[in-house]
């Protein structure tokens, strides 16, 4: 400002104090407005982000009473019990074991023995309902729950679910028990702070903290894998304990760790609360799970399969087969359909569908959007119950692994397509390759090893049933379908193949 005054005329110099005040007021006003604008822009970010807590102590003190220790006893038959080595007289090993057993009450006597295991759990209802892992109480003859005040209570197993490794227990108490509530695991984000509490080895509550490292992890533990990964230490004996968000709500059940040594290396996994809540509800209500059942066997949509079907990208779940008498069959779903959404929830990848179907209420009618013949269609499906289908034997068999009966192909001139030699199914070929009597399609009798078809597992004895979702029964029909695909500008073709008693789709390159 002094520089401005030095360059001013006397008249302007006389007015400088007023000008200074005006400029100062204007500057402050601009800064205030700018601060308000910036705060309004930053507000959504600040509302979503949460700073690291100064301490977890207050939250831990509030939640620890609801976390319990779970111990089990199991009678082990003598034939399954570990045997005591029997060394010859005079052996140094014999002297060592004799001295050891003398210090610990003598050698164990033959016969059944009691085995014990320990884990954690948490109270979800003041009346005494407790959640834990199924593997904690598996095969237990007796389950004991030890509360945070060292009160020991016998527990009843209300129900268990091996597919998600969840179990529900019930204890009787004269007074209401401290309980914790469920949170929304879908709202949790990678990087959010979490706290894990366990009660291992009967030593009392144990608290660890960390962040969510990843979501939707598939560790091949079951059909509904959707684990939360965390670096909060989940040590031995912490299985079945809760994973809390910073509101003190349970967003996961600590279930597994990845570790070469058996100890925590910062890779732990928890069953998401939103998956567990429905399981717990069913176990409490019915003593078992009641999952939705669609009645299809599915496979992933690869980029090649997507291109062969005219999809703009690889997404959805490709229906490989439909169970006779199942809900999908009754609704008109057919093999070759790609399920794009189920009950208005998009299916981005194949493994999402079983979980979404399982979470849907049994008996409800839901819209299913499918891709068929180059366009989207919607069918209405009334869901069945998975457990009833399992008991009745309605479920389709598991997909077989690639590979076939093998053996030398019969002498044939056959038709050559895509590095395959194919022939119409005859009684002689059916006998040669041990095919079912009702087999339809064209049988592969030879495969060129240096082809896309061979790399994708096609072998002599496999049967091509459809090409581009059209049934084929002769080699000429296969060749015509391939020509039509080439004429339409496609670089690959979708074939349905019967192998080892099951159906699956493959996208084969046309070059």
Describe the 3D structure.
It is elongated, with a radius of gyration of 33 Å. Strands 21, 22, 23, 24, 25, 26 and 27 form a seven-stranded antiparallel β-sheet that branches. Strands 1-2-3-6-5-4 form a six-stranded antiparallel β-barrel. A hairpin with a 7-residue loop joins strand 7 (193-198) and strand 8 (206-217). It has 14 helices and 27 strands. It is of the alpha+beta class and 511 residues long.
Which structural class is indicated by helix and strand composition?
A: alpha+beta
Radius of gyration, in Å, reads 33 Å
DSSP summary, beta strand count? 27
Instruction: Please report the distance between the alpha carbons of the first and last residues.
Output: 78 Å
How is the biggest beta sheet arranged?
7 strands, antiparallel
Question: What's the arrangement of secondary structure elements?
Answer:
Layout: H1 2-6, H2 10-14, H3 16-48, H4 57-63, E1 67-76, H5 92-103, E2 113-125, E3 129-132, H6 134-137, E4 142-146, E5 152-161, E6 166-170, E7 193-198, E8 206-217, E9 227-230, E10 242-244, E11 250-257, E12 268-272, H7 273-286, E13 292-293, E14 296-300, H8 303-309, E15 317-322, H9 327-331, E16 338-342, E17 345-346, H10 352-359, E18 365-372, E19 375-382, E20 384-385, H11 386-392, E21 415-417, E22 420-424, H12 427-432, E23 442-447, H13 452-455, E24 463-467, E25 470-471, H14 475-487, E26 492-499, E27 502-509
Antiparallel strand pairs: 1-2, 1-4, 2-3, 3-6, 4-5, 5-6, 7-8, 7-10, 8-9, 9-12, 10-11, 11-12, 13-20, 14-15, 15-16, 16-17, 16-18, 18-19, 21-22, 22-23, 23-24, 24-25, 24-26, 26-27
């Amino acid at each position: 400002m002094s520089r401005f005054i030095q360059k001013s005329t006397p008249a302007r110099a006389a007015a400088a104090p007023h000008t200074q005040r005006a400029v100062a007021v204007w500057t402050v006003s601009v800064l205030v407005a700018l601060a308000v604008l910036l705060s309004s822009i930053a507000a959504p970010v600040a509302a979503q982000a949460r700073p690291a807590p100064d301490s977890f102590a207050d939250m831990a003190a509030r939640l620890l009473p609801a976390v319990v220790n779970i111990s089990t006893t199991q009678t082990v038959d003598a034939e399954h019990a570990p045997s005591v080595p029997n060394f010859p007289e005079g052996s140094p090993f014999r002297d060592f074991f004799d001295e050891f057993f003398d210090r610990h009450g003598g050698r164990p006597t033959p016969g059944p023995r009691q085995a014990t295991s320990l884990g954690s759990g948490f109270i979800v209802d003041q009346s005494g309902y407790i959640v834990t892992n199924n593997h904690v109480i598996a095969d237990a003859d007796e389950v004991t729950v030890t509360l945070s005040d060292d009160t020991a209570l016998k527990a009843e197993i209300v129900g268990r679910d091996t597919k998600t490794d969840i179990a529900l227990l019930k204890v009787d108490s004269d007074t209401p028990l401290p309980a914790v509530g469920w949170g929304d695991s879908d709202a949790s984000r990678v990087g959010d702070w979490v706290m894990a509490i366990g009660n291992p080895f009967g030593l009392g509550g144990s608290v660890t903290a960390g962040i969510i490292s990843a979501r939707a992890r598939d560790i091949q533990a079951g059909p509904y894998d959707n684990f939360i990964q965390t670096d909060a230490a989940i040590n031995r004996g912490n299985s079945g304990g809760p994973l809390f968000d910073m509101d003190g709500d349970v967003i996961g059940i600590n279930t597994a760790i990845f570790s070469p040594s058996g100890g925590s290396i910062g890779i732990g996994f928890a069953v998401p609360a939103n998956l567990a809540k429905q399981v717990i509800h069913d176990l409490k209500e019915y003593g078992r799970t009641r999952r939705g059942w669609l009645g299809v066997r599915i496979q992933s949509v690869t980029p090649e399969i997507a291109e062969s079907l005219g999809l703009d990208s690889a997404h959805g779940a490709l229906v490989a087969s439909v169970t006779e008498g199942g809900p999908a069959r009754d609704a008109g779903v057919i093999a070759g359909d790609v399920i794009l959404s189920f009950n208005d929830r998009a299916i981005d990848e194949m493994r999402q569908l079983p979980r979404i179907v399982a979470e849907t209420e049994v008996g409800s009618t839901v819209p299913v959007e499918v891709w068929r013949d180059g366009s989207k269609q919607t069918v209405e499906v009334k869901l069945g119950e998975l457990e009833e289908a399992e008991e009745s034997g309605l479920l389709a068999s598991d997909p077989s692994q690639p590979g076939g009966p093998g053996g030398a192909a019969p002498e044939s001139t056959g038709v050559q397509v895509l590095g395959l030699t194919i022939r119409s199914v005859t009684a002689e070929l059916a006998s040669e390759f041990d095919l079912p009597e009702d087999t339809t399609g064209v049988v592969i009798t030879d495969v060129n090893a240096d082809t896309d078809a061979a790399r994708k597992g096609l072998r002599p004895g496999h049967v091509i049933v459809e090409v581009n979702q059209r049934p084929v029964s002769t080699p000429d029909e296969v060749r015509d379908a391939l020509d039509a695909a080439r004429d339409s500008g496609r670089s690959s073709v979708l074939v349905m193949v019967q192998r080892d008693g099951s159906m699956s789709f493959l996208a084969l390159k046309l070059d």
